[in-house]
């Protein structure tokens, strides 16, 4: 598998609440490539959807939710930074951004009280967002770099789009910082297309029970608990597929699944994604075979759910 697209995605700016650039990239990509896809989707975007994008293929029964935003930092006062989401605080990590005075490249610093700062040579205008300034690299069986979470999910969804005949791909925003877009997106797909099945296409963690290179992760629960009947249906199909997978059981962590579950609609959800090391850092690391099994599993499930 080629990873040029993933590399490009990891470099596109898009912290939570500031997703315009990544949304514009996706719209351009879709416009350029959809003619070569098996099914040309209906594209829903614009003011009624903010920076979110919905692609509807054929006669859908299942919707895949993929968040396009990332973690980062916002400049405050006196060189202070406020976290967007929950980035790893590793002093010395390189950051980038731009304010009204020009481009910014600086390093992350922290003090004994847990406060976070930048070391740029001038005052950064208040409210300016900064993101990881790092590049993706391939090394043997792994890809490593910034924002595998969730640019890898976006990459997988764009690969799924190439052969998808019936289904919906939702590219959502704000997920890393408490969510906010899913309630009106789930309202749209349920009321217009009667969707009851959803899958959250996101990246999870390598833990004591989840190993790199052992297959895509199907999460039975995190901080939220999806409906067991739907979970067992998905696992049964995964068994039929012959595709390597691992079952995850956690008590922490969350995703767009939380907002799907809290919606006023009878909609099921499950989280399926590859596992990464070095979570929310500038050097997140994912096994290549897990990426392949992630894409293969989605292709298999979307034909059958």
Classify the helix fraction into a percent range. Answer: 25-40%
Architecture per CATH nomenclature, i.e. the level-2 architecture of the largest domain: 3-Layer(aba) Sandwich
What is the straight-line distance between the termini? 26 Å
Strand content: 25-35%
Instruction: Output the CATH homologous superfamily of the largest domain.
Output: Zn peptidases
Q: Provide the CATH topology of the largest domain.
A: Aminopeptidase
Q: Given the C-alpha coordinates, what overall shape results?
A: globular
Secondary structure: number of strands? 19
Low-confidence stretches: none
Major sheet details: 8 strands, mixed
Global mean pLDDT:
97
Structural class call reads alpha+beta
Number of structurally distinct domains: 2
According to CATH, what is the class of the largest domain? Answer: Alpha Beta
Adjacency order of strands in the biggest sheet: 1-2-12-3-13-17-15-16
Q: Please state the CA-atom Rg, rounded to the nearest Å.
A: 19 Å
Number of helices: 7
């Amino acid at each position: 598998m080629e990873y040029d697209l993933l590399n490009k995605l990891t470099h596109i700016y898009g912290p939570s609440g500031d997703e315009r650039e990544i949304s514009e990239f996706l719209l351009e990509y879709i416009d350029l490539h959809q003619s070569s896809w098996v099914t040309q989707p209906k594209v829903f975007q614009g003011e009624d959807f903010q920076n979110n994008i919905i692609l509807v293929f054929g006669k859908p029964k299942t919707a895949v939710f993929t968040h396009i935003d990332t973690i980062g930092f916002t400049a405050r006062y006196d060189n202070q930074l406020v976290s967007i989401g929950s980035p790893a605080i590793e002093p010395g990590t390189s950051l980038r951004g731009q304010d009204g005075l020009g481009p910014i490249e600086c390093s992350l610093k922290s003090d004994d009280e847990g406060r976070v700062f930048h070391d740029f040579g001038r005052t950064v205008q208040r409210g300016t967002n900064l993101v990881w300034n790092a590049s993706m690299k391939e090394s043997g069986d792994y890809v490593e770099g910034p924002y595998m979470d969730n640019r890898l999910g976006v990459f997988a969804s764009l690969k799924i789009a190439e052969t998808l005949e019936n289904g919906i791909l939702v590219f959502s925003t704000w997920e890393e910082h408490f969510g906010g877009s899913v309630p009106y997106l789930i309202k749209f797909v349920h009321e217009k297309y009667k969707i009851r099945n959803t899958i959250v296409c996101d990246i999870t963690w390598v833990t004591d029970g989840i190993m790199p290179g052992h297959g895509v992760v199907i999460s039975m629960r995190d901080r939220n608990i999806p409906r067991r009947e739907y979970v067992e249906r998905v696992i049964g199909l995964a068994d039929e597929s012959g595709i390597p997978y691992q079952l995850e059981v956690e008590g922490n962590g969350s995703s767009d699944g939380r907002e799907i579950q809290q919606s006023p609609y009878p909609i099921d959800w499950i989280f399926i994604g590859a596992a990464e090391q070095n979570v929310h850092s500038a050097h997140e690391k994912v096994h290549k075979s897990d990426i392949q099994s992630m894409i293969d599993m989605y292709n298999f499930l979307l034909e059958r759910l």
